[in-house]
C-alpha cells in the first residue's frame, strides 16, 4: 500500500507560500521557482539570496510573523523554519483550509513531501522513501544521475515537437510505438542533437519517417494479401 500518491503538480503562475528565510528555505525556494510558482516568502530574516530574488522581482518577501490568512490565496505552502512550533502551526492552518503543506524534516506533519529529483527536463524522475531512508534515496539518485545522460531532456523535448506529426503519419498504434522506439534509440540522432547539428537532425528524422513508413506499408500490404 502506498503511503503517498506519486504525482507532479502544475504550479506555474500559481501563488505558493514559503515560510522560512534560511538556507533550507532557500533550497525549497529554488525548487518552487524552477517550477514557475508565484512565490510569497515569509520570515523574520532572510538570506542574501532571497533579497536578490526580491530585487529581481522573482519573489515577494513578507517580513514578520506568519499570518494564517495568507493561505487563503495559496495553492500550497512549505514550512521551512528552524522553529518546530511555527512549522506545526503553519501545517495546522493549512490543514484547516485543505491546502497541501510540506513541513521540512517532519513528514508526519506534512500532507505532501518533496522527493529527491533527477532533472533532465522535460524528463523528471522523483525518488522518495517517505522520510524513512533519506541516505538510501541520495545513493539511488547519485546512481541514476550517472546512468542518465544530460542530453536526455533535449531528446525528449525534440520528440515532443513531433508527436502530432507521428500521430498523423502512422495510423496504427504499433507503427507509432515502433517509430518512437527507433527514434529514442537512434545513435545518429542523439549525436546530432548533442552537437546541435540541426541539418543532420532533420536528415536523420526524415530518414526514420521514410524507412519506417515503408516498413509499415509493407506490413499492411502483407496483411491485406492474407485476408
TrEMBL record:
Pfam (any one): NAD_binding_7
Entry annotated with the keyword Plastid: no
EC annotation from Swiss-Prot or TrEMBL: 1.3.1.76
UniProt pathway: Porphyrin-containing compound metabolism; siroheme biosynthesis; sirohydrochlorin from precorrin-2: step 1/1
Enzymatic class: oxidoreductase
InterPro entries: Met8-like, NAD(P)-bd_dom_sf, Sirohaem_synt_dimer_dom_sf, Sirohaem_synthase_central, Sirohaem_synthase_dimer_dom, Sirohaem_synthase_N
Segments forming domain Sirohaem synthase dimerisation: 151-208
GO MF term set: ferrochelatase activity; precorrin-2 dehydrogenase activity
GO BP term, pick one: siroheme biosynthetic process
Siroheme synthase central domain residues: 125-146
Keywords from the UniProt entry: Lyase, Multifunctional enzyme, NAD, Oxidoreductase, Porphyrin biosynthesis
Catalysed conversion reaction: precorrin-2 + NAD(+) = sirohydrochlorin + NADH + 2 H(+)
Protein name: precorrin-2 dehydrogenase
Organism, scientific name: Photorhabdus khanii
Amino acid at each position: 500500500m502506498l503511503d503517498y500518491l506519486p504525482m507532479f503538480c502544475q504550479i506555474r503562475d500559481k501563488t505558493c507560500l514559503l515560510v522560512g528565510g534560511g538556507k533550507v528555505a532557500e533550497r525549497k525556494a529554488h525548487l518552487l521557482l524552477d517550477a514557475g510558482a508565484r512565490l510569497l516568502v515569509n520570515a523574520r530574516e532572510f538570506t542574501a539570496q532571497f533579497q536578490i530574488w526580491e530585487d529581481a522581482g522573482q519573489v515577494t518577501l513578507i517580513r514578520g510573523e506568519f499570518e494564517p490568512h495568507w493561505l487563503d490565496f495559496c495553492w500550497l505552502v512549505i514550512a521551512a523554519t528552524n522553529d518546530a512550533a511555527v512549522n506545526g502551526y503553519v501545517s495546522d492552518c493549512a490543514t484547516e483550509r485543505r491546502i497541501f503543506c510540506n513541513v521540512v524534516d517532519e513528514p508526519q506533519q506534512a500532507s505532501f513531501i518533496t522527493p529527491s529529483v533527477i532533472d533532465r527536463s522535460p524528463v523528471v524522475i522523483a525518488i522518495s522513501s517517505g522520510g524513512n531512508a533519506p541516505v538510501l534515496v541520495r545513493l539511488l539518485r547519485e546512481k541514476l544521475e550517472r546512468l542518465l545522460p544530460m542530453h536526455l531532456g533535449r531528446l525528449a523535448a525534440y520528440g515532443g515537437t513531433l508527436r502530432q506529426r507521428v500521430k498523423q503519419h502512422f495510423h496504427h498504434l504499433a507503427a507509432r510505438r515502433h517509430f518512437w522506439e527507433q527514434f529514442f534509440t537512434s545513435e545518429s540522432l542523439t549525436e546530432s542533437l548533442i552537437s546541435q547539428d540541426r541539418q543532420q537532425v532533420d536528415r536523420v528524422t526524415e530518414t526514420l519517417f521514410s524507412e519506417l513508413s515503408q516498413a509499415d506499408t509493407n506490413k499492411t500490404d502483407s496483411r491485406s494479401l492474407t485476408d
